[in-house]
Amino acid sequence: MNASRRRSLSFLSGFPALAVFAAPLSAFAASETIGDADALIVVDVQNCFMPGGTLPVKEGDQVVPLINKIARRFHNVVITQDWHTPGHTSFASSHPGKKPFELIDVSYGKQVLWPDHCIQGTQDAALHSGLDIPQAQLIIRKGFHKDTDSYSAFLEADKKTPTGLGGYLKQRAIRRIYVCGLATDFCVAWTALDGRAAGFQVAVIEDASRAIDLNGSLKGAWDEMTKKGVRRLQSSDLL
Ligand code: VGL
Ligand code: ZN
User: Fold this and answer.
1) Which one from 124, 142, 149, 180 is the annotated catalytic residue?
2) Could you confirm whether domain 34-87+118-237 is CATH 3.40.50.40?
């Protein structure tokens, strides 16, 4: 069913007398109503996080067709890109003797060290070529300060430096965001949590996201998101 047909039928559910007619239709209707105050945030669907990329996320490529479908329901779409300098502080290669996935202390707290990934301007940092969201209105890049990482699309890892996304969404009168992409337990979760902290209603679309899952990070991320009022949705809630 296309979006306009779904919308034209949704009023039926408010009328009990018509419930008998509405019931069979509701089996096809998505539960979420999407409007102009909603934005889809598509996080880091970049070659680096795909199988074969520099920081591959298992099944990372599987989110692409699903996100394309979900995005058709949204007028407002923001795409993010992890966008590091060469020699970025989040790279293990920048810290002699350290290996990827080790944890170190930096000025703003703990930093997981990663393989070199998503270097500005490289093909590895490009969006996946299958991403098909022509109406997307903003591409926001993050992690571009050499000495500071940024999982979140709102605030860098120092928890002080804004990316500007919060201001953009507020000026666009967006009140609710739906977050999906890569990786569930890092950039998706941090974006969702900072979105909550900035006063937005937030949902994460679980099956349109995939995780790195490092030392229990996926469970930790969901526990924290649930505690902070991030809703956990599936694509079927939107399609
Ligand atoms: C990400 C680790 C390092 C992500 C980015 O997009 O989740 N994870 N940089
Ligand atoms: Zn990164």
Assistant:
1) 142
2) no
